[in-house]
């Protein structure tokens, strides 16, 4: 993709403007805002500078290649070949940085996994999925905190909600939103027949620097005694918290031991869900363009099948099949599925940029 110089100049002009305003600013809030924009623009400006340096070398090398000095001309021609090979990759790198992207790409996220059709087996599968994400997060240095959990009668989870904190969490996990299907012989099946069960996954960005108005009069907050394993571990106080957002009907719960902590966690999940509603309303205005995007986040859409008899994982959005199911469920090879989805999303963003520049 040949990026017009005017677009590159626009980026560099804005970056220099931000740097000048930062050196002159005295207001704390303005400094924070400028610093954030500076951090977002710096990798773009650095990539543009690198591209411009390489572009500038071309005419110089062509002049040297045409010189009378045979040895120097040969060296220049070799360097010119290497430069022409490197240039498209640099231009693609800059184009990706300039392409429209999700504003929440680097945000932390709320992860919700719920058992779907399939009874006990669906709850067991929901547990397998959550452990997959836990291990994947651990491998990437992210922190996972469980906000609430409802265990299945035979194990696993009917529902589990957790906060995943780290850099770029939402940008990678957003492609997991949707219906996940499993085909396997359940442990509860005596006849050895293959069953199909499902679980739904929702990944919501944790809002950062976004005003989500939640009025006290719009909330109903209830406390109750959370269920426990029995014996000395049973919860004997009404520490679990349920918050109902009356205008939308959204209900969130948290059932750890501290009521104060439960209130804070439930409120955070409520913020994330209200923010997701705002995102969906904004996205609906771009519904046509979203049809071509991978990470639409439609939770009713069947996105992936985990087939145990054949050891394969199939992502239906991009017709991708990998035959390393055990490692995917261990979180070890989940990138084998996520990386192609990111590549597909990048291609869609580059196409959007080309349309913009056309």
What do these coordinates show?
- The chain is α+β, with helices and mostly antiparallel strands and 358 residues long.
- The protein folds into 2 domains: 5-98; 109-308 and 319-329, Alpha-Beta Plaits (2-Layer Sandwich).
- It has 9 helices and 11 strands.
- A hairpin with a 5-residue loop joins β2 (143-151) and β3.
- The longest helix has 38 residues, at 28-65.
- The radius of gyration is 26 Å and the shape is flat.
- It starts with a helix and ends with a helix.
- The model is unreliable at 229-234 and 285-299 (pLDDT under 50).
Core attributes:
358 residues; alpha+beta; Alpha-Beta Plaits; 2 domains; 8-stranded mixed beta sheet; 3-stranded antiparallel beta sheet; 9 helices
Shape: flat
Could you report the average pLDDT, rounded to the nearest whole number? 85
What fold name goes in the CATH topology slot of the largest domain? Alpha-Beta Plaits
Indicate the percent of residues in helices: 40-55%
User: Kindly, what is the distance between the CA atoms of the first and last residues, rounded to a whole number of angstroms?
Assistant: 11 Å
Strand content: 15-25%
Sketch the major β-sheet. 8 strands, mixed
Q: How many separate domains?
A: 2
* SS-derived structural category: alpha+beta
| Largest sheet: spatial strand order | 2-3-1-5-4-9-10-11
